[in-house]
Automatic annotation (TrEMBL):
The active site is at 307 (proton acceptor), 309 (nucleophile). The keyword Amino-acid biosynthesis does not apply. This is GTP cyclohydrolase-2. The gene is ribA. It is an enzyme of class 3 (hydrolase). The lineage of its organism: Bacteria, Pseudomonadati, Pseudomonadota, Alphaproteobacteria, Rhodospirillales. GO terms for biological process: riboflavin biosynthetic process.
Length: 375
């Protein structure tokens, strides 16, 4: 007898204030506004996304703080510029009269038409984990922007301007975990698919109203047994447009067909485009790949880790669906390890391989040789 899936939304509770603060700060950064990041010692600094730097925004930031801003880069981007720092981020002390073009050259490897600054005039210092500057870079990542910010510490006597969104370092650092744990079912509908007519889609949303994740449930999975499952990161170009640069579309449609053929199972469609860097940054990475970099090195050039994804949302969704054990359709052993770390038993890894084409051979080779994927 098939055990019904438990998709009850649970009690309605207001979102934790830290989630709301981060959500608001993300929105402000994305629209090019200044936010205030507050450390454990209650001191604040103003932060602006580096890719939002214009002459006006730099002047505004300087006026707010009463001091010249510095540029904060992720340690990955600092390494690209020749500075290995044993810290999450690096501080670049900018000379007087710094302009947006210099910021763009330092923060964005795709900004090709920008004149190279005199690097001999720039110094980089490590930025400690848990500090306001390091948290500002983490916030930019959450906003799916380049991991680089302009930070200015207010001079003595400078007042925090009313209307500026304030967010705590701890809230930024804990955001992804807190949001994942707050996921709840918000809607469900029957959606017959080409290769799986008996399918329904369940949508999950975090308490702050952030980005939703989806579960495609095919057939009636028996949760008393390991459920055939696939964790699929969204890929607009591959899933929707049929891009040949990756194998994502093949993996998505192939997984749906294989689960349907097996009789039942679940595909989790996770909102973590481009291995967690977002669509715009993925397109930037594509530009760098066209210049000869592989898919992992392109992410590093942009200042990201080679894979920014987390899998607590997947584990939380499976728990809400009553699934404790899975047979996982994947070539990526890290997914197996991640689910196990979050309490989901992977009873079996089921290979999920598709033929290469002339455009994605290098991509697949990199995933195997540098990403540890099993083919």
């Amino acid at each position: 007898m098939t055990k019904p899936l438990d998709v009850s939304p649970g009690p309605n509770q207001p979102p934790p204030p830290p989630l709301i603060a981060v959500d608001r700060a993300v929105a402000e950064l994305r629209r090019g506004a200044v936010v205030a990041v507050r450390g454990a010692d209650s001191r604040v600094a103003y932060a602006l996304a580096a890719e939002a730097a214009t002459a006006d925004s730099l002047a505004h930031l300087t006026t707010l703080a009463g001091t010249r801003p510095c540029l904060i880069l992720s340690n990955r981007r600092a390494a690209v510029l020749g500075h290995d720092v044993a810290a999450p981020a690096a501080r670049v002390d900018l000379p007087a009269g710094i302009d947006p073009l210099t910021v763009a050259w330092l923060a964005d490897p795709v900004a090709r038409d920008v004149p190279q600054p005199d690097l001999t005039k720039l110094t980089m210092q490590p930025v400690a984990a848990g500090s306001v500057p390091a948290a500002s870079v983490a916030l930019a990542k959450l906003a799916r922007l380049l991991p680089a910010t302009l930070v200015a510490v207010p001079t003595a006597g400078a007042l925090l301007l009313s209307g500026v969104v304030v967010v705590d370092v701890a809230a930024i650092e804990e955001y992804q975990q807190t949001a994942a744990r707050s996921l709840r079912k918000v809607s469900e509908a029957r959606v017959p698919l080409v290769d799986a007519e008996n399918a329904r889609i369940v949508a999950f949303r975090p308490a702050d109203g952030g980005i939703e994740h989806l579960a495609i449930i095919i057939g009636e999975p028996d949760t008393a047994q390991p459920v055939l499952a696939r964790l699929h990161s969204e890929c607009f170009t591959g899933d929707l447009l049929g891009s040949l640069r990756c194998d994502c579309g093949d993996q998505l449609r192939g997984a749906i067909a294989e689960i349907a053929q097996a009789g039942s199972g679940i595909l989790l469609y996770l909102s973590q485009e481009g291995r967690g860097i977002g669509l715009v940054n993925k397109l930037r990475a594509y530009q760098l790949q066209d210049d000869g970099l592989d898919t992992l090195d392109a992410n590093l050039q942009l200042g990201f880790d080679d894979d920014e994804r987390i899998y607590l949302p997947a584990a939380q969704m499976l728990r809400l669906l009553g699934v404790e054990r899975v047979r996982l359709l994947t070539n990526n052993p890290l997914k197996v390890e991640a689910l196990a770390a979050h309490g989901v038993v992977v009873a079996e890894r089921v290979p999920h391989v598709f033929p290469a084409n002339d455009h994605n051979q290098g991509y697949l080779r990199t995933k195997a040789t540098k990403g540890g994927h099993l083919f």
